[in-house]
Design a protein that fits this description.
Layout lengths: L8 H11 L8 E4 L8 E5 L9 H10 L3 H4 L3 E4 L3 H13 L3 E6 L4 H8 L4 E5 L4 H12 L2 E2 L6 H17 L5 E5 L4 H13 L4 E7 L4 H8 L7 H4 L14 H10 L2 E5 L1 H15 L5 H11 L9 E5 L6 H8 L2
Parallel strand pairs: 2-10, 3-4, 3-6, 4-5, 7-8, 7-10, 8-9
Antiparallel strand pairs: 1-2
Helix pairs in contact: 1-2, 1-7, 2-4, 2-7, 4-5, 7-8, 8-11, 12-13
EC number: 4.3.1.19
Pfam families: PALP (PF00291)
Family: Belongs to the serine/threonine dehydratase family.
Length: about 325
């Protein structure tokens, strides 16, 4: 993909102006260990109105819809967090939304999506994208992709702008990755504003398509049955998007993976150490540092990307 297709910092700044008033500028919070040390800080995207960073990209994409498209509504496919984001952003914009959700998505995320008045369609994981496209063809609704779209990437990139402005001693940013919208946008913004800062994308070992492709220098696609194995249900996408891949190759310094045990341990550590609710997907970036997969540094910030966790799972993890 030519470099001319890449977004600029100006695109992300424009998105920041559009989403202001709907999306929060979330705080950066220290994670305090039992011995009193602070190995990292987290960008608390779990505090967004829908509980995850996805609201940024969805809000920006919907804000840019032309009037004739708005009357036909929007449709998307998502395992949960993007689903909630599109449902919420559409409700705020006063337009209809249809959400295609894999039938293995956590009930807590499905219920939260329905809360915003969207129509829910459940399908097997491998059929979610084609089902959304079929609905768009039939109804004229606009597809709001979960990650592979410039408006979505620009919206997610506002996380990077905020981190760069909030953390004077920033030297390393850890970002979870699945489809790659958050990692692509955040890396773009960080490198534009603080080029010396190291940006590392983190994904589950059981959904490690990007790590494999990173080693080989070529984007990889895994089977849905492979990525479905991870507890990090928000990171089960089978590959990063095409546009996302180009941004990641341009702006990310490294890609690492973490195990299921490391993800669950980090989820509990974040709850205890930061007093923030984290879902496993949201804890993946922190897991990379807490497990020693990346080198510690005093200016490390990990994106805690979401907190929409099954209460029963959370209770088991934090129980003494």
């Amino acid at each position: 993909m030519p470099t001319s297709a890449l977004l600029s910092l100006a695109d992300v700044r424009d998105a920041a102006a559009r989403i202001s008033g709907i999306c929060l500028c979330t705080p950066v919070v220290p994670v305090v260990m039992p011995d009193g040390t602070v190995p990292l800080r987290v960008k608390a995207e779990c505090l967004q109105p829908t509980g995850a960073f996805k609201l940024r990209g969805a809000t920006n994409a919907i804000a840019l819809l032309e009037p004739e498209r708005r009357v036909r509504g929007v449709v998307t496919h998502s395992s949960g967090n993007h689903a909630q984001a599109v449902a919420y952003a559409a409700a705020r914009a006063g337009i209809a939304a249809t959400i295609v959700i894999p039938d293995n998505a956590p009930a807590v995320k499905v219920e939260a999506t329905a809360r915003w008045g969207a129509q829910i369609v459940r399908v097997p994981p491998a059929e979610r994208e084609t089902a959304a496209e079929a609905i768009a063809e039939e109804t004229g609704a606009t597809v709001v992709p979960p990650y592979d779209h410039p408006d979505v990437i620009a919206g997610q990139g506002t996380v990077g702008i905020e981190i760069a402005e909030q953390v004077p001693d920033l030297d390393q940013v850890l970002v979870p990755v699945s489809g790659g919208g958050l990692a692509a946008g955040t890396a773009l913004a960080i490198k534009a504003l603080r080029p010396q800062v190291r940006v590392v994308a983190v994904e589950p070992e059981l959904a490690g398509d990007l790590a494999e492709g990173w080693r080989d220098g070529q984007r990889r696609v895994w089977a849905a049955s492979q990525t479905a194995r991870t507890i990090a249900d928000g990171l089960r996408t089978t590959s990063v998007g095409l546009l996302n891949w180009a941004h990641l190759r341009a702006h990310v310094d490294d890609v690492v993976t973490v195990t299921e045990e490391e993800i669950l341990s980090a989820t509990a550590t974040l709850v205890r150490g930061s007093r923030l609710v984290a879902e496993p997907s949201g804890a993946v970036a922190s897991a990379a540092l807490l497990s020693g997969r990346v080198d510690p540094s005093p200016g490390t910030v990990a994106v805690l990307s979401g907190g929409n966790v099954d209460p029963a799972l959370l209770a088991r993890l934090v129980a003494p």
